[in-house]
Amino acid sequence: MSDLATLTAHSHPAFFGRLSAIGTTAPTRIWARGDLSLLDQLDQTVNIDGSRASTAYGTQITAEFVADLARDYVTMTGTAYGINAAAARAALAQGDRLIIWQASGHGRPYPEAHRQLIDTIEAAPNTLLLTAVEPGAAPTRFRFIERSRLAALAAGTTLITEAGARSGALLGARIAHAAGRNVAAIPGPITSAASAGSHQLISDGVARLAATPKQVRQLIP
Fold first, then answer.
1. In the chain, what are the domain boundaries?
2. pTM of the entire structure?
3. Residue 158 pairs with which residues in a beta bridge?
4. How many other C-beta atoms lie within 10 A of the C-beta of residue 168?
């Protein structure tokens, strides 16, 4: 396990510049553990987000898209239930670059049921774990919302693979769009409430429709 580093706007101005679009709530410190060189590849990073209550369709399509995109781009996601965990596992299976944003502090794995997944990520090469809260801090609803926003601003592209109408992932997608980042969403069955948020992002012009990984690749310079 690598040492824990504290990042600031002085030490990493370009990184914090990306996060500044969040406004007055932008963090002044980020705690990081792992491969800091991944912060130099954020334009080529795809942030995968979506519902914690994912369906079998959402989990499968997330794994398929990540398996394709991870060959050429850095994957960014979290370790929460549902879409985040599916994306993290798919990136690990490829043995490729992975950035994890956490809503809890280092040393406080969350959810506890994913402790083994988090331990595996920390032990793997080419991975980086980031959080805006101090070591040992517990996750809160606000911290989950902040995590989604920060990840969406840090990455060059955000891909919503499945999200319901009230999913917190939608907030991240909208702030990313407002900041000029690339945003895409995978459509689901029109009868599925689990994809209602994804469909709304597409309908509102916030996200480009992504029916194939190629359509996501076309957004990335």
1. 25-217
2. 0.95
3. 47, 183
4. 20
